[in-house]
Amino acid sequence: MCGIVGYIGQRNATEILIEGLRKLEYRGYDSAGIALLNTNGVHVFKEKGRIAALEELLDETANGTIGIGHTRWATHGEPSRLNAHPHQSASERFTLVHNGVIENYEQLKKAELSDVDFVSETDTEVVVKLIEKKVQGGKSVEEAFRSTLEQLHGSYAIAMLDADNSDVIYVGKNKSPLLVGLGEGFNVVASDAMAMLQVTNQFVELMDQEIVLVTRDFCRIKKLDGTVVERKPFTAELDASDIEKGTYPNYMLKEIDEQPAVVRRIISEYRDEDGVIKVEDSVRQAIKEADRLYIIAAGTSYHAGLVGKQLFEHIAGIPTEVHIASEFSYNMPLVSKKPLFIFISQSGETADSRAVLVHVKKLGFKTLTVTNVPGSTLSREADHTLLLYAGPEIAVASTKAYTAQIAVLAITAADAAVERGLEVKMDLTQELSIVANAMQTLVDEKEKIEALATNYLQTTRNAFYIGRAVDYYVCLEAALKLKEISYVQAEGFAGGELKHGTIALIEKDTPVIAIATQSHVNGAIRSNVKEVVARGAKALIVSMEGLESEDDQLVLPEVNDLLTPLVSVIPLQLLAYYTALHRGCDVDKPRNLAKSVTVE
Ligand code: M6R
Q1: Which of its termini does the chain have fewer beta carbons within 10 Å around, N or C?
Q2: pTM
Q3: Comparing C-alpha atoms, which of 413, 409, 408, 433 is closest to residue 424?
């Protein structure tokens, strides 16, 4: 949440900062700002709304070879110009951008800054004002920066300009991601390498509680106690074209379309030289040693985790629990003797999941992260990582990461089954290839699905998704997708559960979308459909070849029973997409949301 950029070099920083912020807009987009330092001092431009609104403010004073920028997802104070970053100290000597949450900002305000006026409602302003106070008290800027960060509780990635020194950007990090990018005669700062790929692919990773003095020619990393840290840069493997929309109108549609290719890529990434798909030995060993798996995740990744439970239990016979990350920390269940904690996270940065990771590591438990982002916080901090190979997912609504997560969990479960000497009753390579083909058939049926969206969801206030067994888990994901991008009130229900209360909400023309891909519950889910139709619902049935009936609106190509979520979710993603599009919503950047949720 929130994106930070910085540039120090020879060129005018404005364009580089704005371009970087555009790439980071997925992290938050309720306001944006930049600050540039030139011979006339610091110039701050900030505005409520998208980067485009900020760009309209820029004039000839927007120049300087050193600058910082920020795109915000509000935590403290409403989205507004006043609360937008950068924030400045009283004398305007210091200008700062921040991503994260300072938990003790009110205490610091009372204890150290009771004589200082504040202009915003943010936690960030405390930081910049405290730094100035320390400098006025006689500390050097670096000492003031370090000692202020030492006092902060919570998460931060910070970049700061000093109007009296145009040769350095002060940078610090704790629990929020931040990288320094290296160039010839310039250096940059970014929350995500994507933002600065335009100028460099060489990055230095920062660890928690480190600061960096970034100048044009070098970056000096130090711990908060002042000890110098040496760290080699790495090359960001991202291809700049991976993060472009190409000919697509938005990222979500592009990412939905990429799913067959992602599944094929996963097959090839996890295939050994003998053509067997498997996970690396250390992960296999960790699963072998576990007596129970605990999947921890949030949102869409949690929904993938539910399918994962089904896969681990049915394919590998390993008892598996799935927990919402934000609940687990505060309501921890009794844990088995030898658990393995599996964190599923597209971004690898989700603060709720990280809180659990930190907690269970302290308890001495083993951890595995399944993520799309190599080098992300959850990947670095867990004992093991499995990558999704889905390519950057930029639309806020997760699509290809969900199917990639399920595919990787299926491979992991099948591998665990072999290790346990169980017979795996399918050739997973072949079954996943069938899945990829089925996905392709569905992404090629867009017109039909668009028509269904128009017919069923265009004008509705609410919608229900019903399914049984693994279809129920897909219903949860389908409902989340519709809610988050089209703002239609939608809920996913277990088919049998409706009659225990929720059926009271069904009235004439209420859309009820039923998923019927499981033979053992096909009769039961169809009875549930009849129950809602009898009460006026407009039913849309998505079934699978071999289980279809003449009333079904959409029949999916047949795939293995355990892998149906990979296929059934595709038309449901498209239904949400077209509903949002036709309602005039911003599909890629839905209101109130951000892609990477780095606050608890
Ligand atoms: O990066 P993560 O997978 O940890 O993110 C978890 C959720 O915030 C995320 O899946 C969210 O629910 C999606 N925007 C839903 O489309």
Answers
A1: C
A2: 0.87
A3: 413
